[in-house]
Every structure is written in structure tokens, then in C-alpha cells.
Design goal:
By secondary structure, this protein is an alpha+beta fold. The protein has eleven helices and 19 strands. The protein has three domains: about 130 residues, Aminopeptidase (3-Layer(aba) Sandwich); about 160 residues, Aminopeptidase, CATH 3.40.630; about 90 residues, 2-Layer Sandwich (Nonspecific Lipid-transfer Protein, Chain A), CATH 3.30.1050.10. Helix content is about 25%, strand content about 30%. The strands form three sheets. A seven-stranded mixed β-sheet has the order 1-2-3-4-5-14-6, sandwiched between helices. A seven-stranded mixed β-sheet has the order 8-9-10-11-12-7-13. Strands 17-16-15-18-19 form a five-stranded mixed β-sheet. The longest helix is centred in the N-terminal third of the chain and has 16 residues. The two termini are about 30 Å apart. The structure holds coenzyme A. The site of coenzyme A has 17 residues, from strand 4 and helix 3.
Amino acid sequence: MAGTYEIRRFRAAGKDDAAYSGCAAWVRAVGAGFHDTRRSDEFVDKVLANWRADDGELTGVYQTGDVAAHSLAADVPVATFATLRKDLNIGYGRQLRAHLVTAVTVRGTHRRRGLLRTMMTEDLAASKAEGLAVAALTASEASIYGRFGFGVATFERSVKVDAGPRFRLRHAAAGTVEMADRKVLLELAPQVFERVHRAMPGSIVRQEAYRQRSSGSFGRDGGEDEAIRCALHYDAAGTVDGYVAYKFAGWNTKPFTVDVVDLVAATDDAYLELWQFLGSIDLVERISRQEAPVDDPLAWALDDPRCIESSDHRDMLWLRILDTGKALGARRYPVDGSLVLAVADGLGFAAGTFRLEVADGEAAVSAAPPGTVPELTLDVACLGSIYLGAVCPVTLTAAGKITEHAPGAALKARLMFAVERAPHCLTHF
Ligand SMILES: CC(C)(COP(=O)(O)OP(=O)(O)OC[C@H]1O[C@@H](n2cnc3c(N)ncnc32)[C@H](O)[C@@H]1OP(=O)(O)O)[C@@H](O)C(=O)NCCC(=O)NCCS
């Protein structure tokens, strides 16, 4: 790309800043990359305010020299990329700072010239140099990011739940549910989410936009979303420990449906009782939720688990281990033992042969002496996949992705990398 393009990295500017119009062009370029309609000024303003709140870094690639007559101006980026840093729950409440990659687009007329590769490899190298142990993203297509060392680490699915007479959830309520003004979520949503995050492997701390969206303060056009309703769950002591934000899909949608916008529950009781509430809303025949866990207590709590129609089981979080020693050393392990892993990495960041020794759940990681025969050989993308316990090393071995040199080593890895409950990431970015 030398000579033709220039990469610029910057922070989101405020409205009075000279750099604001360039930042607004960047936001609109991201929208164009995902086939959005052109966004209102109000929408762009809020997006930039959120980027400032999250202290994200924006990257744009710009044409140098003259652009073609009548084409988009030179200050409109031909490619975009952005990053932010948030904590990732890596099991047993442990937190690891993660480098999150998002807003990746390349204009159709400039694609397949290596712009993504340049932005990604430069960015990962800089993060590694800064000492970050993992990077993460969510992917529009599953074929893009494996080449950069990212592996699928959590999953999600969409569910439609029959809220008719079949919906019987046997659970003795421990708390209560009440309706609230949607705006209370501006304050409550981050508090409840914080508790969920601490308890949920695979969880990532949410960006500012979440409380805005869940509370209806940041609708599709940037304005208020008056359709959002909110219910809160209170524990026996009266503390809010869960909420659901939802919308009625309208009388023209049959069966009559409620769409869950955000459902966050810090306790098992809160989760089941919010579902009991959703299943009891009068005139509603179906509850639809897009970001449901694949391993869902709801299915086991319902008398008739076939009330749940599940679709689009899909990859969610992709992890890229940047520093194998740091990442392995940061985890807590449920099983003591030792494991020698040979990690291959096309970009070189995480490669090597590592001995993981676990005693009382705590890890000691060292470089294996030259000549050591590993028990498992795997690509860094597979290490990212098994790291949060959601992908089974035995399955990856069966798929030919992991090579087992010592019989039983993949099962040992499965047991060692297990976490305390099914990982689920409620944070899209
Ligand atoms: C995906 C996208 C960013 C790729 O950008 P790009 O600049 O064309 O990618 P590059 O030219 O740097 O390609 C890098 C490598 O990825 C491959 N690649 C790029 N996009 C791919 C895709 N969609 N599927 C499969 N492979 C892809 C290229 O073939 C190339 O492979 P190689 O270097 O191993 O030979 C671009 O097509 C795009 O903007 N798509 C629409 C928005 C989107 O989906 N963004 C991703 C959001 S998660």
C-alpha cells in the first residue's frame, strides 16, 4: 500500500474541535462499510461521544495525492478500524485486559489490496509491544480472521420462546419484578452488568453505548426510542439484581411478539424470574431474543423445553493470544497437573513451546527446554478457542486442528481449561 495510502490514528474529537468533521466522516465511512443508511448528525454525535467515553482509538486509511474527479473526497477514509481496551473475564472471576478490534471496513473499490492486513498486523504488533496478552473481536464472516491468529472462543444463538399456555416455568420466586421508566437503566444497567461480568467467564466489560441503547436513549436514528419498556428484578432484600429492556413488535407481527433488547441478570433467581415475567405478559404469544446463551438454564427450567425454538447457533467472541506465557499464567485452572504445548503462530507473537505447571489452581509457565517433545501441537487460533473453556480440545483434535503427541493430552487440556460455568459474552463490539 506504500505511496498510495496513508494510515492515520486519532481519538474521537469533540464538537468544537477542528478534527470533528474528519471524525464524523470516519463514523459515516464505518456505516457505509456495513451498508447502513447515512446517519443523522445527532447519531454521529452520539457515536463520537461514546468513543470518547470509551477512550477508543480510531484508525482511517486515506488516499494520498489526487482522488478521482467526482469521487468521494480524500478526507473520507477508504478503510476504517478501531480499538478499545476492556477487561475480559477469563474464568473464576479473573480479569485480563483485552485489546478489542472493531469497526473494520474497507471500501469496495479498494478491497483486497492488503489494507485490512496492514491495519491488523500493525495494530496487533503495537498491542503486543505494549504488553497486552490477548486481542478480541466479533466477526461478520467466519473466513476473515483465522489468518491473523483469532479463534472462536464463545458462541451464542437466537431463540423464540412460545409464551402461550405451554410456557410453564417451575420456579418458586425468590424476589419480585416491577416495571420502571426505561431511563433508570442509564444508572442501573452498568451496576447490574458489573455483577454479571464478575461471575461470567467470557464476559467483556461493556462500552458506554450499552446503557444508552438499553435505556432507549440512543435509538436507531440517534434519538429517543420510545418503544422500549423496562422491568427490574429485585432480590429479597430489595436490591435490583436484574433487568430486561424489551419492545413489543407491533400488532402486525403474528404471533404477537416481544423482542428482548437486553436481558441482564446477576443471579440465577433473577434470570428465571425475568423469564417468568416475560412469559406472563398479556397479549404476547412469543418472546424473541437475539443474543441468547447456547447453554441456557431456561431450557431446563421450562416444563416443556420445546417452547424454545433455537436458530442461528453462531460464533460470537474471537480471541487472539498475543503472549502465550502471560495468557496461560493469568488463568486459574480447576485441575492440577502439567501440560506441554507447542504453539505455532504465523505472525510470530505467541509462538513457542511452553510448559504449564498447575498447583492449587495457580499456573507457572516456562519455556520448555530445546528438544522437549510437546504433548499437544496447536495453532495460536486454537489456543484462543480453548482458552475460555468453551471449545473442547478433544473436538479440535478430532478435526485435525490439534495434534496430540501423548495419548489423553487433549482430554487433560479439556479438564484443565474448564471454567466454573458455561462461558457467555453479552458484549458485542
Ligand atoms: C473484510 C474486509 C475488511 C477485508 O478487507 P481487505 O482490505 O479487502 O482485506 P485484505 O486485502 O487486507 O486481505 C487480507 C487477507 O484476508 C483475505 N480476506 C479478506 N476478506 C475476506 C473475506 N471476506 N473472506 C475471506 N477472506 C478474506 C484476503 O484474501 C487476504 O488473504 P491473504 O492475505 O491471506 O492472501 C472488507 O472486505 C470489508 O470491508 N468487508 C465488509 C465489512 C466487514 O465485513 N468487515 C469486517 C467486520 S468484522
